[in-house]
Amino acid sequence: MQDEFDGRSLTDRLLHWGRRASDRAGTASREGAGQAMPTKAFGKFLACLASRESPVLLDLGPVVGPNVGVLGERLGCKLVVEDLFADLDRHAKEGRIPEFAEFLSARLKHPDGSVDGILCWDLLDYLDKASAQVLGRELTRVLKPGGALLGFFATTPPEDRRASYTKFLIVDDTTLEHRSYPAARAKQPVLNNRDITRLFEGLRVAESFLLLTKTREILFRKAG
């Protein structure tokens, strides 16, 4: 993917990214498959990784084909997808949620300090306290010094009580398309800001945005 840009200036790359983002937005609108929603932190997350050469990016959501191309074009990164939503759903269907914290403690096989960026999406909204604490420690462990982690957190209980997860499709730096799909696990009680920061004690909050969609976007950084 990165070879496509060999010999191009930064301006050429940004123009190409803008055209591709516009094409994706038009396609999404025609398909009507999801809802385009604003984001303030996603572009800042990308900026954190843009200066790193061939960064390693860990995505905790399901594989989303268009995102693979977008992130490859934008960052020239190595994208590693670890679908923890699928793991959580399986545990919920099998009645093994009490075991999920222990499962997470050994789930990520990445060495310490081996990942430049982490897309956590809204996974923490679905976890019990013990599982959230384990995941926070594991993500902090694998993140490189200077690395970035992006998480989305609900600030109010969902209006729709039906259990569902969300796939986040990248439209551009300021827009993500939300596509819901069935879930066996409902969102858990809302985490307050102190609870969230305690989950990532080895990281600092670099940016925090409260959106009109009642979602808080938090960009964490690791000192280094």
Report on the structure:
The chain is α/β, with parallel strands linked by helices. It has one domain (2-221): Rossmann fold (3-Layer(aba) Sandwich). It has 7 helices and 9 strands, in the order αβαβαβααβαβββαββ. It has helices spanning 10-31, 42-50, 65-75, 84-93, 100-107, 129-142, 193-199, and strands spanning 35-38, 56-59, 78-81, 115-121, 143-154, 164-172, 175-182, 204-210, 215-221. The strands form 2 sheets. Strands 3-2-4-5-9-8 form a 6-stranded mixed sheet. Strands 1-7-6 form a 3-stranded antiparallel sheet. A hairpin with a 4-residue loop joins strand 8 (204-210) and strand 9 (215-221). Helix 1 (10-31) runs antiparallel to helix 3 and helix 5 runs parallel beside helix 6 (129-142). It is globular.
Which SSEs are present, and which pair or pack?
Layout (H helix, E strand, L loop, with lengths): L9 H22 L3 E4 L3 H9 L5 E4 L5 H11 L2 E4 L2 H10 L6 H8 L7 E7 L7 H14 E12 L9 E9 L2 E8 L10 H7 L4 E7 L4 E7 L3
Helix pairs in contact: 1-3, 5-6
